[in-house]
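Worked example 3 (structure in, sequence out).
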């Protein structure tokens, strides 16, 4: 039962971290920039749509599944690293699902920030969720 409560707390913590002005304002700014560019730049949407409809969607499904499946394996690796670091006390390591989610969040932060801040964010998120340093 404690694992279920910890999982619920982690999900609430994730929502609390992502639904903040720090993430909302850049998202709105990005949407505005995309809207501005699509209005000012002559993009042939009909030609683009024609190319999209001729593509094989199964390649995209395969790419999507294979890409996001890697986060399970990355989560397992990160869990093993944390378990090794906590070998001399420090509580149980996180679940593979939790570690995969934290790595996915780190990748997202890397994609919207400079200087590979996702790695630092991943460490911060884990430390704040587990009350460790």
């Amino acid at each position: 039962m404690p694992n279920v409560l910890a999982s619920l707390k982690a999900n609430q913590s994730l929502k609390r971290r992502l639904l903040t002005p720090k993430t909302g304002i850049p998202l709105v700014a990005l949407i505005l920039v995309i809207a501005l560019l699509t209005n000012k730049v002559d993009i042939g949407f009909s030609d683009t749509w024609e190319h999209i409809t001729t593509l094989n969607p199964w390649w995209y499904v395969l790419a999507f599944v294979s890409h996001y499946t890697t986060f399970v394996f990355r989560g397992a690796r990160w869990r093993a690293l944390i378990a090794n670091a906590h070998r001399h006390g420090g509580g149980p390591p996180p679940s593979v699902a939790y570690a995969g989610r934290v790595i996915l969040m780190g990748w997202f932060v890397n994609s919207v920030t400079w200087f590979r801040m996702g790695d630092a964010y991943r460490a911060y998120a884990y430390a704040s969720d587990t009350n460790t340093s």
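Notes: The radius of gyration is 19 Å. The CA atoms of residues 26 and 112 lie 9 Å apart.
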